[in-house]
Amino acid sequence: LPHAVCLGESMAVLLPDGPGPLETISTFSASAGGAESNVACALAALGVPSAWISRVGDDGFGRRLVAEVAAHGVDTSAVAVDPRRPTGVYLKEIGGSEHPNDLGAGRSRLHYYRAGSAASALSPELLADPAAARLLTAARMLHLTGITPALSDSCLALVRALLDPGRRRGRLVSFDLNWRPVLWHGRDPRVLLGLLNAADVLLLGADEAEAALGTADPEVLRAMFPSPATVVVKDSGHTVTALGQGGPAVTEPALTVEVVEPTGAGDAFAAGYLAGTARGLDQRRRLRLGHLTAACTLTVHGDQGRIPPDDVVAALLALPAE
Ligand code: KDG
């Protein structure tokens, strides 16, 4: 049974064969990705038994998605198949060509085709599903993101139900803001405020916090969200600060790597941090395992990096603080 459950939509991913705006791309390779399943896969790679709960369409993309996530060792037994709605899809656009419409080297953009998807029909009914209830009852950690409440009213209701103190049974709930402004068109993103404050571990990127919450200042964010035991703020200089409830903040710089493409790095950081939490590491080493896992993803094109062998990870974690 899983130690951690990650819940949210994943999609078929169409990755262009090279950089450039979509009007110039003729070949895409298909894979699978999504914030919460990325976290589940990286947790499994780090030795934390994990499960991913979602819904997919009764189509080839859905079957591929479940198979790919399961191939990472993630429990997919509670992924429901919707006979009517399709699996969502996203295309990735990668900058770095000479074309005038290029995004710019090192930048990427996601284009979503997910409105009305199978996963957007996630709802509190999930809690009565025996397969999902079995995993949730066993899990010591539940990972959610700010993507799910943007998808539909029923998704928002499910996230609210999962954060309800009466249903938590001592499970640690982590919540990554994952601010996706395009998904909030026509919906009120202020609902996020209450959700973020209901988590135990709140993960925020400084850029997205500035955009969604109006500040990137770790102390201000800590004061804005008093309930979580820990608020983790990842700043644009790639330093991460963890703030508990009182006591000194812990700040840890990232590893210096050649960034190939950033998608999925935030998910990898979350997985590393949560794996460090599951291992009972101190705050600094949790952050360090987050950085290390993120670095593995920053240096590849896909959503997942390859985690180095255990002895390399252990040596990096053991380095003294700078
Ligand atoms: O963090 C990476 C995710 O953004 C990507 O895999 C797609 O889940 C996704 C989303 O909704 O943006």
Detailed description of the structure:
This is Sugar kinase. InterPro entries: Carb_kinase_PfkB-like, PfkB_dom, Ribokinase-like. Belongs to the carbohydrate kinase PfkB family. With about 325 residues, this protein is of the alpha/beta class. It has a single domain (about 5-10, about 35-85, about 120-320), classed as UDP-N-acetylmuramoyl-L-alanine:D-glutamate ligase. The protein has twelve helices and 14 strands. An eight-stranded mixed β-sheet has the order 4-1-9-10-11-12-13-14, sandwiched between helices. A four-stranded mixed β-sheet has the order 3-2-7-8. Strand 12 (about 230-235) and strand 13 form a beta hairpin. It is globular, with a radius of gyration of 19 Å. 2-keto-3-deoxygluconate (KDG) binds near residues 33 and 90.
List the helices and strands and how they pair.
Layout (H helix, E strand, L loop, with lengths): L3 E4 L3 E6 L11 E6 L1 H11 L4 E4 L1 E3 L2 H12 L8 E3 L6 E6 L13 E6 L16 H9 L2 E5 L2 H4 L1 H11 L1 H4 L3 E5 L14 H7 L3 E5 H8 L4 H7 L5 E5 L4 E5 L6 E4 L11 H14 L4 H16 L11 H9 L4
Helix pairs in contact: 1-10, 10-11, 11-12
GO molecular function, one term: kinase activity
Protein name: Sugar kinase
InterPro entries: Carb_kinase_PfkB-like, PfkB_dom, Ribokinase-like
